[in-house]
Design brief:
330 residues; Alpha-Beta Plaits; 2 domains; nine-stranded mixed sheet; globular; binds (3R)-3-hydroxy-3-methyl-5-(phosphonooxy)pentanoic acid; transferase; Mevalonate kinase; ATP binding; kinase
Length: 330
């Protein structure tokens, strides 16, 4: 028996950084997926094969205390620790320790770009392995287990990435509570700068600025929270689609300006943001922690023009849409 599962990447539509201070955020699953195939093997060991994970190619296998890398790549090692934790967690739940499992991973999601590749691989692994072991888990439960994996590997996590990857669509998140917002087609272009920022360092940098000048940073964070609430209201409103998209675009631009004020943009990110707007996007902003990573643009009927503009500005564009589906068994 073998099981193939897949889970999507995510973008934070609004509210990164301010969410760390208890404000709301909105995230969405997008149509880039990680695929995980799970099957039993006779070795009694966990074997992980990772191909094409948008990091130099490698094949890895490890048992409990040993890790064998065909090549030693940091980013890949990071991804694998999510996979191992995910498998171990499911084995605990299934109480079927000892049976060898081979997991093969392929992914369309760039690693370390702020698109939730770690959460997607954790969720897809939990989905595939739990099915293989005969566990009946809902996608929401798998999202929660994905959050536990993130906590085990990273030490801290809001849980927004594994949740949206597991349940799909658009979610509003506030203080640990998630709600699905009505699904809407959002014609998106993601622009990858080609470098990755460290979420941990950027969050710490914002914290230092906050502590040094709270009277300035607090109102910025409050405004970000208000941008998120306005975006939520817009998504829930009866406005016609064109008006909704135009409003969301304006809110994205405001959110980007506020993120820039916090110091998390870079020259490259700003160049991609302005290139996208000049090419006709309704709005463009950083997505995720910043300091590199990705931006995204909302570009109805202008996706290919915006993608070209991002390429010319030195970024890697990915034309994508919101994914209604989260985790799915293929
Ligand atoms: O870079 P990402 O996609 O992991 O997003 C980080 C989002 C932050 O708000 C900056 C941090 C957090 O824990 O919410």
């Amino acid at each position: 028996m073998r099981v193939l599962a897949s889970a999507p990447a995510k973008i934070i539509l609004f509210g990164e950084h301010s969410v760390v201070y208890g404000k709301p955020a909105i995230a969405a699953a997008i149509n880039l997926r990680t695929y995980v195939r799970a099957e039993f093997n006779d070795s009694g060991r966990i074997k992980i094969e990772a191909h094409d994970i948008k990091t130099p190619g490698l094949i890895v296998s490890f048992s409990e205390n040993e890790i064998y890398f065909e090549s030693d790549y940091g980013k890949a090692a990071e991804v694998l620790s999510y996979v191992r934790q995910a498998i171990e967690l499911v084995q605990e739940e299934a109480d079927k320790n000892g049976r060898g499992i081979t997991v093969s991973i392929t992914s369309q999601i760039p690693v370390g770009a702020g698109l939730g590749s770690s959460a997607a691989v954790a969720v897809a692994t939990i989905g595939a392995v739990s099915k293989l072991l005969g566990l009946e888990l809902t996608n929401e439960e798998i999202g929660k287990l994905g959050h536990r994996v993130e906590l085990l590997v990273q030490g801290a996590s809001s849980g927004i990435d594994p949740t949206v990857s597991a349940i799909g669509g658009i979610i509003h998140y506030e203080k640990g509570k998630f709600e699905h917002l009505p699904f809407m087609e959002l014609p998106i272009v993601v622009g990858y700068t080609g470098s990755s920022g460290s979420t941990k360092e950027l969050v710490a940098m914002v914290r230092r600025t906050y502590e040094e000048m709270p009277e300035i940073v607090e109102p910025i964070l409050t405004s970000m929270g208000k941008v998120v609430e306005k975006a939520r209201e817009t998504l829930l409103s009866e406005l016609e689609e064109g008006q909704k998209l135009a409003r969301l675009g304006r809110l994205m631009n405001i959110n980007h300006g506020l993120l820039d004020a916090l110091g998390v943009s870079t020259k490259k990110l700003s160049e991609l943001v302005y290139a996208a707007r000049t090419a006709g996007a309704l709005g463009a902003k950083i997505t995720g922690a910043g300091g590199g990573g990705c931006m995204y643009a909302l570009a109805p009927e202008r996706q290919s023009e915006v993608a070209t503009a991002i390429t010319i500005a030195g970024g890697t564009p990915m034309i994508t849409e919101i994914s209604r589906e989260g985790l799915r068994i293929e």
